[in-house]
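Marked as duplicate of an earlier ticket. Keeping the data here for the record.
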Amino acid sequence: MFELFKIGFISVTLIDIIDIALVSILVYKLYDFMKGTIAGQIFWGLVIVLILSFITQAIDLKALGWLLTLVRDIWVIAFIILFQPEIRKLLVSLGRNPIVKSFQKKSENVVINEIVDASFELAQHQHGALMVIVKSSGIAGIAETGDLINARITKDLLRSIFFPRSPLHDGAAILKGDLVESVRCTLPLSTVTEIDGETLGMRHRAGLGITEQADVISIIVSEETGSIAVAENGKLTRGLSKDMLTKYLNAKLSTKTEKKIQNFLNIFNKKNN
C-alpha cells in the first residue's frame, strides 16, 4: 500500500488514515448517543482503560498490563451488560433508518378503519385505551406479559377489550398485522413525565415508553379527557381528529415515504401553534 509518511519507524498509509477516521467517527457517534446519561460516563471509563492498556503495552509495564489485560478480556461481556438499554435503542434506531427499511416488507394488511373507529368510539365514552401497532420489529417479550388471543382486529373486539368492566381492559393491546396478538400487556414507562408543562399519566408514559424501545406506533385514548394521541419514535402527538388519525396511520403503515409523513406532522403542528 502507498506510504504517505512515517512517524518514527511507523509507516502511515491512506488505509490507516481512513481506518482512524472511521474509528473516530464511531467513537464520537457512540458518545453522542449516550451523552448526558450514566452510560456516557461509563463509556469514557472504558475508553480510558483501553488507552491505558495500549500505553502499558508500549512501555512494557508488566504488572499494570496484566491487570488491564484481565479487564480487557471481559470488557465485551461487561459492555453488553452495562449498555443493554443503549444497545437496544441504538439497534432500534438503525432499524428505523430509511435505507434499512427499504429492504423490509411493510405490512399492508392493517385494518386501519377498524382501529380508528374503535379509538373514537372509546374516546366518545371516555373509555381509556392503549393500543400498540407493531411495524417492522416484533415485541414478543412485551406480548408475553399479557394474555395471547390472536384474534382478528375488529372495532367491536377493541371496544370490548377496553370496556371499563372488562377483565382485559388494564394494560395495552398489541396489534400485529390484522390480529390483536395480546392484551393486558405491561409496557415500559418513559422517563418523560411532562410535555409542554402538562403532566403525563401512566397510560401516556407507557405508550411513549414502548416507542422509545421498539419500532411501533402507540394509540392512547385518555380516560380523563377523551382525547386521542399517538406516539412514535419517542415523540407524542396529541389532539388528533378522526381524519388526522386515519391519514397518520395510512401514511405510517403503507409504502409512503418518511418525507410525506414528516410533512403531515409539520402541517399538523403548524395548525396547533
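See parent ticket for discussion. DSSP finds eleven helices and eleven strands in the chain.
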